[in-house]
Design brief:
Strand content: 5-15%
Distance between the termini: 101 Å
Length: 179
């Protein structure tokens, strides 16, 4: 009897590795091999997706909800369109897991582009993401796991809080100050 070895699998890295293998096969120029490899990936996806759907149906939503914070489980559920949360909830979950405050400005389904505004940072007035900079790797990785529909992320600069208006006036004259 063999013991199951727990291996940490990164969903984003696994996807990158699949793409790299398919790219290597495409570089050979053999179209039949490329077509067969792509078909193999589709068949395996369908196979594992069907099995995962049976598991989800069998355990129900209550036990499943305990697993939704796990990036690998969330990624598989989203990939196979089995995730019980809608896209907005999954984006919020991804941003919470990345621990970088950001405001969602909108999502364009046609392009897969998510627009975020970086939230103001600490007391220095700077934001966690510099204006014009892209999202952090933590945000990208979390979105890849929880919301794979998001293809690109555009960052808008943080809104500066409204300046506090300091009222300056003249002091009333007192007899001791009168000239």
């Amino acid at each position: 009897m063999s013991a199951h070895k727990s291996v940490r699998v990164d969903a984003r890295q696994a996807g990158v590795r699949v793409e790299e293998v398919l790219d290597r096969l495409a570089a050979t120029g053999d179209r039949e091999v490329c077509a067969a490899a792509e078909e193999l990936v589709r068949v395996l996806m369908d196979f594992y997706g069907a099995g995962l759907a049976r598991i989800v149906a069998g355990i129900g939503e209550a036990p499943l909800s305990e697993l939704l914070d796990d990036e690998l489980v969330a990624s598989l559920l989203a990939l196979h369109d089995l995730h019980p949360e809608d896209l907005d909830a999954r984006i919020a979950r991804a941003l919470a897991s990345a621990r970088e405050p950001a405001e969602v400005l909108g999502f364009d389904e046609a392009t897969g582009t998510l627009r975020l505004r970086s939230a103001p940072g600490g007391g220095c007035g700077c934001s966690s993401v510099e204006a014009g900079a892209g999202p952090s790797r933590a945000v990208e990785d979390a979105l890849a796991c929880f919301a794979p529909e998001v293809i690109t992320v555009e960052m808008a600069p943080a809104e500066d809080p409204a300046p506090v208006l300091l009222q300056i006036g003249t002091r009333p004259q007192t007899p001791s100050r009168a000239l």
